Every structure is written in C-alpha cells, then in structure tokens.
Amino acid sequence: MIIHLKSSVTDAEVQKIAIELDAFHIKKPDFHVLVTPSALKEVPAQYENITEASFVFPNDMQLASADYFSETREIDINGVKIGGTNNNTMVIAGPCSVESEEQITQSAELMVEQGISTLRAGCYKPRTSPYSFQGMGLDGLKLLDKMRTKFGLNIITEVRDTTHVDEIIEYADIIQVGAKAMYDQGILRTCGKSRKPILLKRGFGTTLQEFVQAAEFILSAGNDNVILCERGIRTFETKTRFTLDLCGVAYLKEHTNLPIILDPSHAIGYRYGVPDLARACTAMGIEGLLIEVHPDPSVAKSDAAQQLDHAMFRDLLTTLRPIATAVGRTII
Ligand code: PEP
Ligand code: MN
C-alpha cells in the first residue's frame, strides 16, 4: 500500500517506520510517501494519527496505478512536455544507431526541418549476435552531445548494461532502457536514483504486470519520470518481427498513470508497415511515437529493414498531424 505521512514527521522517524513496514521512503515537499508491499491492506493503528492519506492495491502495481492518481504523469524534457494536460504526441525519431558524424548530422537536420524536438540513436546496441555492429559507444554519445548543442535537440539513447548506465545518464536527456535490458535491476535501480526521464521498453516476453513492476523499481527509488514504451511482443506469428500489442496499450492507458509511447518500427520490423502502424498508434491518443529513420537505410548498420528514409518520414508526418488533431493532440 501507499501511505502519505504528514510532513511534520521527521526523516528519522519515517525511516524507522519504513524499516518496520518493509517500505520505500520517497520524500515530497509536503509529505512523505511510504510504499509497502501490496499485501499490506491497512495502516497500522499506531501510525493512523500521522497518516494523511492511504491507498490499497490488489497487487504490486502501486505508484504507477491509475488508482493512486488517475491523471497521466507530466514529463518535462527540458521544456518539452508530455502527459499531464499537455495533449502532445511527441515524435522521437532518428536512426537505430549512431554510425558517423555525417549520418547523425543529416538525421538531426531532418528533425529540425520537421519541427521534431527529440533525436534518437543507439550507441551501445544490444545485438542478438556478437558478430553484428555493437555501436560506437562513447564516441557515439559525444556525437549525440554535439547534435544537442548544435541543433538544440533533446537526445535519447539506450542503456545496454550497467557498465555504462552512468555515462548514458550523464549524456542523454531521456534514458532508454531497451526490451532486453528492462529486467536488469542494476539498470532500473540506477535509473531510479536519477531524475531524468526514463523510457522503459517492454520486453518481448514480458507480461503487462511484469512491465509495470519494472517501472515500479524506478518509481519507488524516487524517480517520477517514467515513460512506458510498447515495441511489440513475441507471438506465434513469424511474418512480422513482433506483434504490436495495442490491447496492452489500451490496458496501460486505463490502469496506469504513466505516459505511453509506441514503437511501430521495432514491432513490425519492415519499413512498409511503419507508416500505417504509426497512424493507427496516433489515433489511440498516446504521448509519443518512436520511429527509426535513416538517411540511407540500405547501408544502415543495424535494423536496416525497418528504418524509413527521409522522404518517407516527411510524408508520414504530413499524414500524422491531422490524425493527432482529430484525437485532440498535437504532434511535437
Ligand atoms: C532500439 O530502439 O533500437 C532497440 C534496440 O529497441 P528494443 O530494445 O525495443 O529492441
Ligand atoms: Mn533499432
């Protein structure tokens, strides 16, 4: 359960209670938040007089639950806002990987041209083969940093493992925790200590309950800025790379307070389907889209088949804007 204790309770007292209740303690300006295991269903009698509010949950989906508060959390990325009352659909776009200064500069220029504020590209790639391109590492991060300074873009890039999580937190404006990394508790706990926005991708074999519980690791460590990303799950179907779980998105919208971003590129795995899926996703009224786009997808070093070229991306945005308007949102 979640218990709000009055701000008059001292830190030392709250910490004692937290140990007693096996709870996480998050300090807010006006009150203390204690998050206990969901098995606790009643505030112990001795703490009733110092309790301001309490919330009971059927399972460990707690801080992320719409029953805790129903409004979607607002995430502010250097002034670019999603969630809350903003009604924005933030397009995050760029190549799968940073490959060279020329490639990432062309990508950044496309974002500026299209009024898109957030450039994506991986530097530490979680490949399924050790013989595939593994990413440019720190050199790639430095190039992203350069793009931020030169073009005023927000940068999102992914963490592959704990060896470089601090490096990513230092360089990125949004930290992406990928589908394969989302079970890594070292990464989740480190992201919880940061206050930067975390884009948490759903693993391709992850239930919605497990997905939200991964978010709870970050939230319970005190980082309120978690965004969920549905990027396709593995099903019996092999014609497409994964299956985009839009039912799951409807569930998360209804039952959680976290902003949701959809990634049609990794879901289908083939560029021909990305524009239709992106339009369908936008029509669902979501906080964002993640689209892979490359200056020349035929030479891309990772995810070549699914990346749009620049002309396709321009066309896509032209069709997305009226769909966003129809559902009361603005593409940013
Ligand atoms: C990516 O965004 O390039 C990526 C590898 O995504 P995922 O973790 O969803 O596979
Ligand atoms: Mn990719």
Number of helices: 10
The percentage helix is 25-40%
Mean pLDDT: 97
What can be said about the biggest beta sheet? Answer: 8 strands, parallel, barrel
* First-last Cα distance: 36 Å
Q: Note the overall shape.
A: globular
What is the H/E string? EHEEEEEEHEHEHEHEHEHEHHEHE
Catalogue the unreliable spans.
Answer: none
What molecules are bound to this protein?
phosphoenolpyruvate, manganese (II) ion
Question: How many runs of DSSP E, i.e. beta strands?
Answer: 15
Report strand order across the widest sheet.
7-8-9-10-11-12-13-14
Strand content: 15-25%
In terms of structural class, how would the helical and strand content be classed?
alpha/beta
* Rg, Å, rounded: 20 Å
Describe the structure.
Helices cover 33% and strands 19% of the residues. The protein has helices spanning 11-21, 101-113, 138-151, 165-171, 185-193, 208-220, 246-255, 264-268, 274-283, 310-326, and strands at 2-6, 24-27, 31-35, 51-55, 75-77, 80-82, 88-94, 118-120, 154-159, 174-177, 198-201, 226-230, 260-262, 288-292, 330-331. The chain is globular, with a radius of gyration of 20 Å. The mean pLDDT is 97. Phosphoenolpyruvate (PEP) is lined by residues 96, 122, 126, 158, 178-180, 201, 231, 266.
Give a quick rundown of the structure.
The protein has 332 residues and is α/β, with parallel strands linked by helices. The protein has helices spanning 11-21, 101-113, 138-151, 165-171, 185-193, 208-220, 246-255, 264-268, 274-283, 310-326; strands at residues 2-6, 24-27, 31-35, 51-55, 75-77, 80-82, 88-94, 118-120, 154-159, 174-177, 198-201, 226-230, 260-262, 288-292, 330-331. Strands 7-8-9-10-11-12-13-14 form an eight-stranded parallel barrel, surrounded by seven helices. It has a four-stranded antiparallel beta sheet with strand order 2-3-1-4, with helices on one face. It has a two-stranded antiparallel ribbon with strand order 5-6.
